[in-house]
Inverse folding.
């Protein structure tokens, strides 16, 4: 039976984050810093939305649903190691993947935070809060911004490796569900509770207004 | 067609450079160190000017000071890049060989920077915040325009 797992706001936020992350990388790599700042604002709004959706969204998108205690994670890893396949396994994020999502969101938020204070060598392309810090402090923020990027690339690589592992070793193809939102599950599976669309609109509005306010400073 | 005088001049310049290099007059490492300091000072002035122009009560004396410093730096910038101080010359630098392979392009890029920096000095004198901000943006674009073509991403 096809079971709806990911709601549209979650999927949109996921793919927006992917596109904007790539845009941030490309624009910085090619010294298009004005565009880099715009892409960064977009990514920050996306991350803020996703964090808000982690509290207000559907069941599978909520932190309370996928950030599990260490004991649960260890038990899950043991099950993975035994190679046991469970067709009725976790619908949304599994206990291990949940922490990976938590880490990626946290680091992306920190990354955007560093970017707000970062100052480019020429003193021109600078985050909106850089006026409150010295040139040298802004440069330090920029260096940390660069380091955090590399850690993020590592986390993304881990994310992709896990998807590949599930597909190859456990015969569970995860990608399509993040595109159309559905997974195949036994008919006995309890349906996922989702949040109404207006709640997504409200969270998105808050996220966008917050970023616009930052940009205005 | 180049005139023979031009040819002689180019030859003379090339010869004198070669002599200078072989005599060890050009200490690439010293040049790169000084250049980094110059450019960092430029960045500092630029940041200070933008911060001031973005504050509630801009200090116009400070803005004019920074604009003058940027313009002075912009005028001097080409002299910070003597031949033999780029990548592949045994020094750690982001200065790409294109600076010396396409000297006309580099001259144009640095001239664009100097022109916009001079305009920034004029803008600062008007004490018009919107104008200064717009002109600071124009200056910043010439920074990026040059970095895109002549600065490597990593050391």
């Amino acid at each position: 039976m096809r079971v709806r797992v990911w709601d549209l706001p979650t999927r949109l936020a996921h793919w927006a984050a992917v596109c904007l992350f790539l845009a941030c990388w490309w624009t910085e790599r090619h010294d298009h810093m004005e565009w880099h700042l715009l892409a960064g604002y977009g990514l920050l709004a996306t991350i803020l939305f996703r964090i808000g959706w982690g509290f207000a969204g559907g069941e599978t998108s909520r932190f309370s649903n996928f950030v599990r205690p260490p004991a649960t994670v260890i038990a899950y890893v043991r099950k993975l190691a035994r190679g046991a396949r469970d067709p009725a396994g976790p619908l949304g994020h599994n206990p291990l993947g949940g922490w990976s999502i938590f880490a990626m969101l946290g680091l992306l938020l920190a990354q955007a935070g560093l970017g707000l204070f970062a100052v480019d060598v020429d003193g021109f392309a600078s985050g909106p809060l850089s006026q409150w810090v010295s040139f040298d402090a802004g440069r330090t923020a920029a260096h940390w911004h660069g380091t955090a990027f590399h850690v993020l690339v590592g986390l993304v690589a881990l994310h992709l490796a896990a998807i590949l592992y599930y597909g190859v070793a456990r015969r569970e193809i995860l990608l399509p569900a993040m595109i159309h939102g559905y997974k195949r599950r036994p008919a006995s599976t309890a349906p996922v509770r989702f949040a109404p669309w207006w709640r997504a609109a409200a969270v998105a509005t808050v996220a966008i207004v917050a970023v616009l306010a930052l940009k205005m400073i | 067609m180049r005139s023979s005088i031009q040819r002689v001049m180019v030859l003379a310049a090339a010869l004198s450079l070669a002599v200078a290099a072989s005599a060890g007059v050009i200490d690439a490492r010293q040049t790169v160190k000084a250049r980094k300091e110059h450019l960092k000072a430029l960045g500092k002035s630029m940041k200070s000017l933008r911060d001031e122009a973005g504050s509630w009560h801009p200090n116009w004396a400070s803005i004019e000071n920074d604009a003058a410093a940027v313009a002075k730096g912009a005028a001097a910038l080409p002299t910070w890049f003597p031949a033999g101080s780029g990548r592949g010359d045994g020094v750690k630098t982001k200065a790409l060989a294109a600076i010396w392979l396409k000297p006309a392009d580099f001259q144009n890029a640095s001239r664009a920077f100097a022109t916009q920096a001079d305009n920034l000095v004029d803008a600062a004198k008007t004490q018009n915040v919107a104008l200064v901000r717009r002109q600071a943006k124009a200056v910043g674009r010439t920074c990026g325009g040059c970095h895109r073509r002549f600065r490597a991403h990593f050391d």
Notes: The mean pLDDT of chain B is 88. DSSP finds six helices and no strands in chain B.
